[in-house]
Design brief:
The chain is α/β, with parallel strands linked by helices and 244 residues long. The protein has helices spanning 15-26, 38-47, 64-78, 101-129, 141-144, 150-170, 188-191, 195-203, 213-224; strands at residues 6-10, 30-35, 54-58, 83-86, 132-137, 175-182, 235-238. The chain contains nine helices and seven strands. Strands 3-2-1-4-5-6-7 form a seven-stranded parallel sheet, sandwiched between helices. Bound molecules: 1,4-dihydronicotinamide adenine dinucleotide (NAI).
């Protein structure tokens, strides 16, 4: 489905990002991972089949210049970028009473500013070729809001607004911008969650199980591919029916 396409995945060293990279490669694309964690990302490149299939570029998505270098790396390795996935993220959970300003800024910076950096830089290059697909990873937290996640919920809702505004701006240049809202997915990010919180979330999921990173990745592949050629500004939920 993606034979010959050049793709970038931020935060692709592990978890959902790595699953997305794996699914893109499986469909014939070549992927550059932009991540802060060099050791884990280099291992990911090996897992993806080595240099002919994937590359790594050290990137902090908060830094616009590093995002430009990430795109340069992808263009040099695999040609002009067709697919850009804004996936990098982190959590700093605390209730409003306990959350520090630093916790708020850190989460909003990585998710919202980071996604804006990615959309802006990728779109600037894609517009010259009048083609491209940008996929932003939001979260169900951005739809319903989660206790202890005022920072994360705000950033993830912000990604929805950013996705729709960018989709409107870029449609006439042949660039599509869509978002995915995963629910409760088994990854290193959710591994450390307290057991009672996990149980509470499970009770809300009609399908009665956590999702896998591969199940999110499949939807990203769909949005990245020509299968979704008449979709832009869409927000697809991958949540086992939770908060439908
Ligand atoms: P993870 O913690 O396993 O992986 C996140 C990756 O992002 C790591 O490789 C990390 O090094 C990288 N990263 C963090 N800050 C970065 C920065 N400033 N610049 C570049 N890379 C950076 O997380 P997971 O679970 O794979 O999450 C991936 C995305 O999916 C995130 O945006 C997350 O918010 C979202 N998501 C996850 C859900 C879940 O249940 N796991 C549910 C909904 C959304």
């Amino acid at each position: 489905m993606l034979s010959g396409r050049s793709a970038v995945v931020t935060g692709g060293a592990q978890g959902i990002g790595l699953a997305i990279a794996r699914a893109l490669v499986a469909q014939g694309a070549r992927v550059v991972i932009g991540d802060l964690n060099e050791a884990v990302a280099r291992q990911a490149v090996e897992d993806l089949g080595g240099d002919s299939f994937a590359r790594f570029s050290l990137c902090d998505v908060r830094d616009g210049a590093m995002v430009e270098r990430l795109l340069d790396t992808a263009e040099e390795a695999f040609g002009p970028v067709d697919i850009f996935v804004n996936n990098a993220g982190l959590t700093r959970d605390a209730t409003l009473r306990k959350m520090s300003e630093e916790d708020f800024d850190a989460v909003v910076d990585v998710h919202l500013k980071g996604t804006w950096n990615g959309v802006r830089a990728a779109a600037a290059r894609m517009r010259e070729r009048k083609a491209g697909s940008i996929v932003n990873i939001s979260s169900m937290a951005g739809k319903v809001g989660n206790i202890g996640q005022t920072n994360y919920s705000a950033a993830k809702a912000g990604i929805v607004g950013l996705t729709k505004a960018a989709a409107k701006e870029l449609a006439y240049r042949g660039i599509r911008v869509n978002a995915v809202q995963p629910g409760f997915i088994a990854t290193p990010m959710t591994e450390t969650m307290p057991e009672h919180v996990k149980q509470q979330k499970m009770a809300e999921i009609p399908m009665n199980r956590v999702g896998t990173a591969a199940e999110v990745a499949n939807v990203v592949v769909f949005l990245a591919s020509d299968m979704s050629s008449y979709m832009t500004g869409a927000v697809l939920e991958v949540a086992g029916g939770r908060f439908m």
